[in-house]
Each structure stands twice: as C-alpha cells, then as structure tokens.
Amino acid sequence: MARSLSEIRERSRERARLRAAARSELKNTAYEIFIGALSILSIVNLVLVYVIAGDNAVELVLSVMNALFSAIFLGDFIYRISTAPSAGRYFFRGFGWADLLASLPFPQFKILRLFRLLRVFRLLRDLGPRTVWATLIHDRANSALMTLLLMGVLVLQFGSITILAVEEHADGANITTASDALWYTLVTISTVGYGDQYPVTNAGRLIGALIIVVGVGIFGTFTGYLANLFLGPGRGGAEAAETDAALADPGDEQSDAATAGAPAAETAQPSIARHAAKGVAAGAAAGAVNAGVSAAAATVEGGADVPPVAAADEMPADPGETAERLRALLAQSEEAMAEMRRLLAGATP
Question: GO:BP terms for this protein (predicted)?
C-alpha cells in the first residue's frame, strides 16, 4: 500500500513537472495551435505538389504559399530562440535546428516541419485538453486573432486554387494564371475590389461571393481587434479606475453630484477642505482609540493592583475627562478645516 502511494505521488510529481516545463516552453496556446495548423497545411502542400504534378498554375500557387509559410516559420524560430530561457537547450535539445532548416526555402528541408508539429502536439498534450480549452476561452482576443489569420491563409490558398480551376478554361475568362487567381483572391478578401480580375462563370461568382463574405468577417474583426489594442485603455489604467471606484466614498459621490452644476473653481475648495477635515478627524479618532487600547493593555498586564495613574499619560481614567479631550480634538479639526479654507480662498485668483 505504501509503495502504491509513493508511486502515485511520483507520477503526480512527474505530471506536474511536465506541465511546468510545457508552460515554460509554451508561448501562447492560440499561437501554438496556429503554428501547428500551418505546419499541417505546409505538409499537405508538399503532398499536393506530387499529386498534381504537371499543373504548372496550381504548383505556382502552392509555391507562393510555401514561401509565405517559410517566412512565418522563420519568424517563429527567431521569436522562440530570442525568448527561450536557454537558447542552446532550445536549439539542440528542443529541435531548434530543425525549425531553422525547415524555414529555409529548400524543398529538401521542408519535411523537417514534422518536428515543429510534434513539439506543438507534445506541449498541448502535457497541458491537457481542459487547460487548453480554458486558456482559449479566457484569452479570447488572441484566440480570435489567430483564428482569423488561419482563416485568411486557408481562403487565400484554397480560394485561389478553386477559382483558378473553375475559371481557367472558361470562355472569356480573365483569371487564367496563378498570379491572376492569387491577385483576385487577395483583393477580394481585403474588400478592395479593383475589378480588373473577375469571374465570368456562375460557379466562379459563387466562389467569389463566399470569399467576399469571409473577407468581410476577417477584416472587420481584425480592424476591431486593432482598434481595441491601440485605442482601448491599458490594463494598468483599468485597474487604477477600478481601485478608485472601489475606494470612492458614497457621501463624496452624493456631494459631488449635488455640486455638479457649480463651476470647478467653486467646488474644488470645499472638496479639498472636506477631505482634509476628514483626515484630521480620522487622525484624532485613531489617536484616541490607540490611547484607550494602550490603557486597557497596561491595566491587564499590571493586574488589579495597577492604579489607573499608570495609563494617565495616554488616556484619562475619568470618563468626563475623556469626553473633554475628544471635544478638544474635534475643535482642533474644525479649526484646521477653517484655516485650510482661508488659505484656499486667499490662493484663488
């Protein structure tokens, strides 16, 4: 029984260690899924190149997409090696060398993109499906951004291939080459629509309509994301605003609302004086409470034989004297408030 418990503890520790290592290597869950999906698509393109051998137009589209993937993977390699806790460990033990070779524009090394796909699968497996799903739901902004980028890549590739296959041999077609198809798809996704390239068949128009709908969704959401990123309040500013709202005094809000129609110069002075008076009164009350606590502590420590004079320096034993002292403190706070009002009135031009 003891052995089984020790084995369970050891396994749980190993799982915790693997999850900690995965989190340290994991850049962002949505980003890792995006890179994994691009790796799968790039490997599919390698297979398509051999399947459709002889169709030069489609091969050119796939070559352009593979060049785009190479640029993305090279940027991913630079990002990982620059942010890795140990660049040497990532390069030699984390298959960084395979990421570098796979990002180069050489067909012989593109098969090494399998290592990137395996690493993404291992990281996500170590985290667990629940953790991955919870992270995607919590980080909705990055998840939406990565989803839009992936949709844009898919539409650009398969939209170009499909519109080329439909329009290439049609009568009166002007989308007859790979560059025409890529240009038409890119212009349509971006909702620019120059009109220099357009489909002439019903099937081509249907494909163009689908590309337009997807493009509007992609660029509309992407524009909103950028606007929120650059124009939205920062996290620090939002936290400060929440803190100020939580610490706001309801009495202050009512008084501010009551004086909302008055000029700022007239309402600023009472507000400052009111806060100053509250501070003075709070300090006086705190001093009185501390004095009472000190007197009680002195009485308890000395026992019944300790005379009340032992705490007379801090708090009078007579209730009448205590009340008189509190009245004096309140009078001092009122005098301080009146003095601050006079100073503010003299400083106002």
Answer: action potential
pTM over 0.85: no
Domain limits for position 7 = 1-138
- Beta-strand (E) ranges in the chain? none
pLDDT digits (tens, 9 = 90+) for 40-85: 998 888 888 888 877 788 889 998 998 899 899 999 899 888 888 8
Measured between alpha carbons, how far is 288 from 332 in angstroms, rounded to an integer? Answer: 14
> How many C-beta atoms lie closer than 10 Å to residue 241's C-beta?
11
CATH number of the domain encompassing residue 199: 1.10.287.70
Q: Give pLDDT tens digits for 155-198.
A: 999 999 999 999 988 888 889 899 999 999 999 988 887 888 88
With vertex at residue 54, the alpha carbon angle to CA 52 and CA 57, rounded to the nearest 5 degrees, is 85
Q: Concatenated DSSP letters for 168-187?
A: TTSTT-S--SHHHHHHHHHH
Number of domains comprising the chain? 3
Closest Cα to residue 34, out of 185, 147, 180?
147
Q: How far is CA 107 from CA 42, 68, 77, 95, 101, in A?
A: 11, 14, 18, 19, 10
Judge contact between 113 and 77, C-beta under 8 A.
no
Domain membership of residue 260 (yes or no) is: yes
